């Protein structure tokens, strides 16, 4: 698969088949993503991958906390507000998702069930947790972001689907204990990996994209 095809075929999968992703495939994906650029070739990313019973313990623990009403506490703080244009795009995308699934966005029980899927890790058989030395700056977070995109694009070469989500790192102390992640590492992001269930309604929506003419400003060309 070429890069253009990978970029267009990658989308956030919110329902996975239980079929596992073998370790050899995961290593190939990570090896390709490891070519990502970084400041001074610092390569600041550290990756912890959970599957099997390890991931099942985390899944159960996450659901217990969610069902108990405990708020998420990611180590990288969530934005408290968004500029109006971005907020509008997010709202439009949410409305598009509900419409594609044939659901009402006003039904609180439905909204809670959809949110709960996040804490089930969308049924994914694998989650990769991307970490970063706490002393580093946002420039290194930018580097980890490039590595993360590399993971998701490389996964497409092997027909592996993905979704990056803050909810996957909602309770970092559980992840840290289960995967023995040192305290000096910040748990930044989780990427769920697996094979999409094409029949699941959660996989029907596709995120909206603004036109490239709205994004780019040319000058001198």
Characterise the protein shown here.
- The protein has helices spanning 3-9, 23-33, 52-67, 84-101, 108-119, 138-157, 172-179, 212-215; strands spanning 46-51, 126-133, 161-165, 185-194.
- The model has no long low-confidence stretch (mean pLDDT 95).
- With 221 residues, it is an alpha+beta fold.
- Helix 1 (3-9) packs across helix 6.
- The radius of gyration is 18 Å and the shape is globular.
- The chain has a 4-stranded antiparallel sheet, sandwiched between helices.
- The protein has a single domain, classed as NADH Oxidase (3-Layer(aba) Sandwich).
Give a concise summary.
The chain is globular and about 40 Å long.
């Amino acid at each position: 698969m070429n890069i253009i095809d990978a970029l267009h075929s990658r989308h956030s999968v919110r329902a996975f088949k239980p079929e596992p992703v073998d370790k050899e495939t995961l290593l190939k994906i990570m090896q390709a993503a490891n070519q990502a650029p970084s400041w001074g070739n610092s390569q600041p990313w550290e990756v912890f991958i959970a599957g099997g019973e390890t991931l099942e313990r985390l899944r159960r623990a996450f659901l217990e906390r969610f069902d108990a009403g405990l708020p998420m506490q990611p180590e990288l703080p969530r934005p408290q507000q968004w500029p109006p244009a971005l907020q509008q795009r997010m709202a439009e995308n949410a409305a598009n998702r509900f419409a594609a699934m044939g659901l009402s966005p006003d039904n609180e029980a439905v909204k809670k069930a959809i949110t709960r899927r996040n804490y089930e890790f969308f049924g994914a058989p694998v989650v990769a947790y991307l970490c970063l030395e706490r002393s580093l700056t946002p420039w290194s977070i930018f580097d980890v972001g490039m590595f993360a995109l590399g993971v998701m694009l490389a996964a497409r070469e092997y027909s592996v689907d993905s979704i990056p989500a803050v909810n996957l790192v909602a309770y970092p102390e559980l992840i840290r204990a289960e995967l023995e992640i040192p305290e000096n590492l910040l748990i930044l992001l989780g990427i769920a990996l697996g094979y999409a269930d094409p029949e699941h309604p959660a996989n029907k929506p596709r995120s909206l994209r603004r036109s490239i003419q709205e994004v780019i400003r040319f000058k001198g060309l």
